């Protein structure tokens, strides 16, 4: 009997010992694995809330920090090292021990001021690993890993410590990414001044140096994007291949200060790097639905946001790009008071500017455009208009018609000239009731003053954000062209409505432009960073005024872009006259542009193959919008409407490529069907080569149910 008791006791004891191990192995959260009783821990593991994303950290024998990443048991990143090199100090990248770790579980939901969703879930497991060099000078470095169901973000923190000195100059941040396979990759080259390139699709082994977001597909079909979040007071990061290393290894590289090997200068602590991010999705659509970049940014810093208004805008803009008018003064000057009023009238009449937020952009309104403005940034004046443009009169006329005036500030890369005038200009704009600026930084080889500062370097990273903060003080929204890439900062400063940082529509007006596949790649690459001012909505895709240039899509695809690409400020780009027929009547397909919202409550991506096609479904209140686009191949895509309420009938306004449409030979014919649909229907998007489909769905009235036909798939 005694023995029986003892057996039960031993069994119980064994259970108590084994249970925690069984549980920890399969649940999210982190645990330390110690390699022996008295040895310091050298390994840390942490899983995402659903347990699928797993991050392992270890110190190698020489004390070098390494992380590795897996998804559902598939290794995505093999052990990859972390560290820094400084000017006048030895590298901080080895000889470490783990002093301690701390963990945190976080789960809340927040509401963005505007954007792609009305509510965003921020749910992660975090571990902070406190490292210290074993030998003098015993410098400290902390690593924070935040593991989400849709990826991982990690950052370095250098705490205040005597052994690092007061001024630090970072020569290099050596964050390795040892990818497990020769993934298919979509990329643009890195040059520290521009992201305006067409994307290439190649095996990872052909990648040399690329900008982020950098997106890949693994042999298993898992998709991942490497980028950064909260790029603040630091240099922009690109990725370059490592010579002589294992085949598929990339390492971070930072934009330099002019004529220097210094990348980041710091004189206060703690130093926090931006988050290095790896977003993971089971398919390409998961990437687009991910909120990780925003979640890694700080909450909204602005107390009052009532003046922030996402909007569509028209503009004296495309007419310059297609050579109909000029920025500079003279007989073809585009920015005249009279011309501006015509755009306002158009917005009032056809975009219902009294009831929705509509802006008017006027480029070439201010002095400085004459001569070669790309070289003469120092003569731009941001408060003085050309004599044929009366700023006050135009702003007032706009206001009377419910239109917001958007001031254009092209700096041409003369930051000194701009900063000298910024206070005065922003004061004037605020006084006049101007609530929005589109800024520009055309400077192909870096800034003119201070000379050589790169668009993506620390100096400019700070300038762009300072401009946004100053604008906020004046209740002004900003849309930046030639920007630093987006890294989710619009969560913190929601007046940063949009930015370029992309080969946008304008390239089609004066160069070979972008091939049809471009717009099936952007949602998974550039748009992983955030909103884009792409400038969609060209109806005259063959550009009558420019016989040798054209847009490489059908007109129906131009409509779909209002759904597949988001921006806090979305342009209605074409000339007003191109939205009308020969008799001056507005074209019926323009209704989609009028109806489509710019800020959304939800997003889904049911069809996605990068470089081939994409369908994005977005909700705004009770309405749904669907945009589908394809590359140069015609194809049919099924869109199940199961997201609709079950007990409700809806009207679907479907704008499709006409049968016979083709981006090259017959781009402009759009067919419109207005039908009744419900949750059991599947819409077939029949896309022409280079084509698209745009759909608006809203709850049907009794009358509409009685009079409109039900949806049937047309042959
Ligand atoms: C380049 C910008 O991308 C474009 O939108 C603008 O019209 C010109 N610069 C002139 O500022
Ligand atoms: Ca540009």
UniProtKB/TrEMBL annotation:
All residue ranges annotated as the Glycosyl-hydrolase 97 C-terminal oligomerisation domain in the record: 599-697
Keywords: Hydrolase
Molecular function, one GO term: hydrolase activity
Domain of life: Bacteria
Record domain Glycosyl-hydrolase 97 catalytic: where: 317-502
Family matches, as InterPro entries: Aldolase_TIM (IPR013785), GH (IPR017853), GH-type_carb-bd (IPR014718), GH97_C (IPR029483), GH97_catalytic (IPR019563), GH97_N (IPR029486), Glycosyl_hydrolase_97 (IPR052720)
Domain Glycosyl-hydrolase 97 N-terminal residue range list: 47-299
Protein name (record): Glycoside hydrolase family 97 protein
Organism whose genome encodes this protein: Bacillus taeanensis
């Amino acid at each position: 009997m005694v023995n029986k008791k003892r057996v039960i006791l031993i069994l119980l004891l064994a259970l108590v010992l084994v249970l925690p191990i069984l549980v920890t192995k399969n649940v999210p959260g982190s645990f330390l694995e110690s390699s022996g009783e008295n040895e310091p821990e050298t390994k840390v593991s942490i899983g995402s809330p659903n347990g699928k994303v797993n991050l392992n950290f270890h110190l190698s024998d020489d004390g070098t920090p390494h992380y590795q990443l897996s998804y559902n048991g598939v290794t995505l990143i093999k052990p990859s090292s972390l560290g820094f090199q400084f000017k006048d100090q030895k590298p901080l990248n080895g000889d470490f021990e783990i002093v301690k770790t701390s963990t945190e579980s976080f789960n809340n939901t927040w509401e963005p001021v505007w954007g792609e969703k009305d509510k965003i879930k921020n749910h992660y497991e975090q571990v902070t690993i406190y490292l210290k060099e074993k030998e003098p000078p015993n410098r400290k470095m902390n690593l924070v890993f935040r593991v989400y169901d849709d990826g991982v973000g990690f950052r370095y923190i250098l705490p205040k410590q005597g052994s690092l000195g007061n001024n630090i100059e970072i020569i290099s941040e050596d964050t390795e990414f040892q990818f497990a396979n020769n993934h298919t990759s979509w990329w643009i080259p890195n040059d520290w001044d521009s992201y305006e390139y067409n994307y290439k699709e190649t095996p990872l082994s052909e990648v040399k140096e690329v900008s982020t977001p950098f997106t890949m597909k693994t042999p298993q079909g898992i998709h991942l994007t490497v980028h950064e979040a909260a790029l603040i007071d630091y240099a922009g990061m690109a990725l370059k291949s490592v010579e002589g290393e294992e085949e598929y290894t990339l390492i971070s590289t930072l934009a330099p200060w002019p004529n220097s090997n210094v990348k980041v200068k710091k004189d206060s602590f703690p130093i926090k790097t931006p988050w290095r991010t790896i977003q993971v999705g089971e398919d390409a659509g998961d990437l687009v639905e991910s909120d990780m970049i925003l979640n890694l940014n700080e909450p909204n810093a602005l107390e009052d946001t009532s003046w922030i208004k996402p909007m569509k805008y028209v503009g004296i803009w495309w007419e310059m790009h297609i050579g109909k008018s000029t920025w500079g003064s003279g007989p073809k000057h585009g920015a005249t008071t009279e011309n501006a009023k015509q755009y306002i009238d158009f917005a009032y009449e056809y975009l219902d500017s009294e009831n929705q937020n509509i802006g008017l952009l006027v480029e070439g309104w201010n002095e400085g455009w004459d001569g070669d403005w790309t070289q003469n940034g120092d003569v731009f004046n941001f408060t003085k208009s050309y004599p044929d443009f009366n700023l006050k009169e135009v702003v007032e006329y706009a206001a009377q018609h419910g239109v917001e005036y958007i001031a254009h500030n092209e700096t041409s890369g003369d930051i000194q000239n701009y900063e000298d005038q910024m206070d005065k200009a922003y004061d004037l704009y605020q006084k006049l009731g101007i609530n929005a600026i589109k800024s520009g930084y055309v400077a192909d080889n870096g800034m003119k003053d201070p000379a050589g500062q790169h668009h993506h370097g620390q100096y400019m990273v700070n300038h762009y954000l300072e401009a946004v903060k100053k604008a906020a003080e004046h209740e002004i929204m900003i849309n930046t062209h030639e920007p630093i890439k987006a890294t989710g900062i619009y969560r913190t400063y929601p007046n940063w409505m949009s930015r370029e940082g992309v080969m946008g529509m304008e390239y089609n007006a004066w160069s070979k432009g972008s091939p049809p596949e471009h717009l099936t790649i952007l949602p998974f690459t550039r748009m992983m960073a955030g909103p884009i001012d792409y400038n969609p909505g060209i109806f005259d895709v063959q550009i009558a005024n420019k016989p040798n240039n054209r847009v490489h899509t059908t007109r129906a695809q131009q409509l779909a872009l209002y759904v597949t690409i988001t921006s806090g400020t979305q342009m209605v780009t074409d000339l007003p006259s191109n939205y009308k027929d020969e008799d001056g009547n507005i074209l019926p397909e323009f209704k989609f542009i009028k109806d489509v919202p710019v800020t959304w409550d939800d997003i889904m991506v049911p069809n996605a193959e990068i470089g081939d096609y994409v369908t994005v479904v977005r909700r705004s209140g009770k309405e749904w919008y669907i945009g589908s686009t394809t590359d140069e191949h015609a194809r049919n895509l099924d869109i199940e409407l199961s997201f609709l309420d079950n007990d409700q009938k809806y009207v679907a306004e479907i704008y499709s490529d006409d049968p016979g449409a083709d981006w090259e030979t017959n781009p402009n014919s759009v067919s419109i069907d207005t039908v009744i649909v419900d949750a059991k229907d599947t819409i077939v998007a029949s896309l022409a080569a280079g084509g698209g489909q745009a759909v608006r769905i809203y709850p049907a009235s009794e009358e509409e149910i009685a009079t409109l036909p039900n949806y049937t798939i047309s042959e």
